[in-house]
Amino acid sequence: MSTTASTSLERDLTALLGAGSVLPGTTRSYLTDATESRNLRGKADAIALPADADQVARTVGWCYDHDVAIIPRGGGTGFTGGAVPLDGGVVLSLERLRKTRHLDPELWRAAVEAGVITADLRRRARENGLFYPPDPGSAEQSQLGGNIATNAGGPHAFKYGVTGAWITGLEVVLAPGELVRIGGPLRKDVAGYDIKSLMIGSEGTLGVVTAAWVKLVPAPETALPLAALYPDSAAGCAAIEMILGSGIVAAAIEYLDAGAVAATRGAFPVELPDNARFMVLADADGTADEAARIHEELNEVLSEQAVLVHAPTDAKEINALWRWRDGASLAVTAQRGGKVSEDIVVPIDRLQQAIDETVEIGRRHDIEACSWGHAGDGNLHSTFMIDLDDPAELERAEHAAEDLFALAIQLGGSVSGEHGIGLVKNGQIAAQWQPAAVAMHEAIKRCFDPKGLLNPGKKLARV
Ligand SMILES: Cc1cc2nc3c(=O)[nH]c(=O)nc-3n(C[C@H](O)[C@H](O)[C@H](O)COP(=O)(O)OP(=O)(O)OC[C@H]3O[C@@H](n4cnc5c(N)ncnc54)[C@H](O)[C@@H]3O)c2cc1C
């Protein structure tokens, strides 16, 4: 799109949304997401900041009328370039839709707007004795709308499920600009096809989420984590399978491999022995008695082959352990300044193979690799560490990622467990799904977005 057209576009959108609601398309902070660590940056014609759901509908309507692409944007923490405008169009940021419309603690539910920060929703629930479990590591920056659009997980998805499990209804803007409610404060609803679930995880390619009804549960009274260190992935993965085999219901089971432990060990709350090269981090929650019992059971199973177990019990130390876990991704990035980080998922009995093969793939491409992630869900953040100033290294890492996707599929897994396809995994669905399912994927897109203007070029089954 030309500069003149973009200027008149900004003027038209300003007339629609009011002064101060439109930023120039060159505003840098809206042109990238967490894939900036692999040098991905887009370009836009304008940034729209609607104030409410009606304004979102008007923006989508205007763009649809004028054949302008719409790129919905939440907190911009995505790891797949989903919120990055590829080739112009309007970045539609939901950041001003921050209202809690209802919070009914006695009925365990809330209705909140899409731009609410995930951690704020979790805090509001807590203040009312309730729990909103989804806890992506980006919770202080990501938005509920972005979490819905990616069906985000996090450590406690192991016990409580991913974002979609907590959404009972959605308010969305569908093409060509209709504000529609699907579901609501309902704990069950099987009328019609499950359009709500189609929207969840659709990465802004089928519509724009403006609000959601979420269900909540009474907050667990206590949560007690423990971190066990092992000499290698074989011992660590055996311990993970022992947790499951013993019938212990942990709230979270996380892992870090040797490279991830090396990148983060300096910041770990206690000193780690030299032979600590694999970590299992598990959490026990429930009533005080229940959490203490599960914690003890976990300690017994995890201690068997561990070289060290760190089991904090006071609130300050527990927070320090989770803060350290939340910093793992950044600590790995800091190793070389950049990274190509993926999120494959495999059946739990193939976890060790996927962890070891990640490092082997890196070796084959001459790139240092490591992984960490949500072990209980078989979800690996397999990562290739790179120097961003070395384009050859980035290229090798992208090739390594291709091999990693092939590995996930070969192990009976998937190319994405929680981050989605976005831009960086386009085409991978066709490698994983049978042709009829791929055709259905494409037909759904055409049905929701006949002009192909909703986040174009993202979540493509085939390229
Ligand atoms: C440090 C770090 C840790 C992370 N940890 C986790 C983790 O544990 N689990 C996990 O699942 N992810 C994790 N992520 C990835 C990321 O935070 C999630 O994918 C998150 O859900 C993205 O939310 P967002 O609001 O930032 O969305 P954005 O990055 O802004 O957008 C993501 C996608 O959703 C679309 N979108 C955004 N808002 C809307 C809307 N209202 N309507 C329609 N489409 C929309 C965008 O177009 C884009 O395709 C992590 C990221 C970082 C940087």
Essential attributes:
single chain, binds flavin-adenine dinucleotide, 15 helices, seven-stranded antiparallel sheet, alpha+beta, five-stranded antiparallel sheet, 463 residues
Beta-strand content: 15-25%
What small molecules does this complex bind?
Answer: flavin-adenine dinucleotide
How would a crystallographer describe the biggest sheet? 7 strands, antiparallel
**Outline:** globular
* Number of E strands: 18
Mean pLDDT equals 96
Class per helix and strand makeup? alpha+beta
How much helicity do the residues have?
25-40%
Report how far apart the termini are.
23 Å
Q: What is the count of helical runs?
A: 15
User: How do the strands line up in the largest sheet?
Assistant: 15-12-14-13-17-18-16
Uncertain spans: 1-5
Radius of gyration, in angstroms, nearest whole number: 22 Å
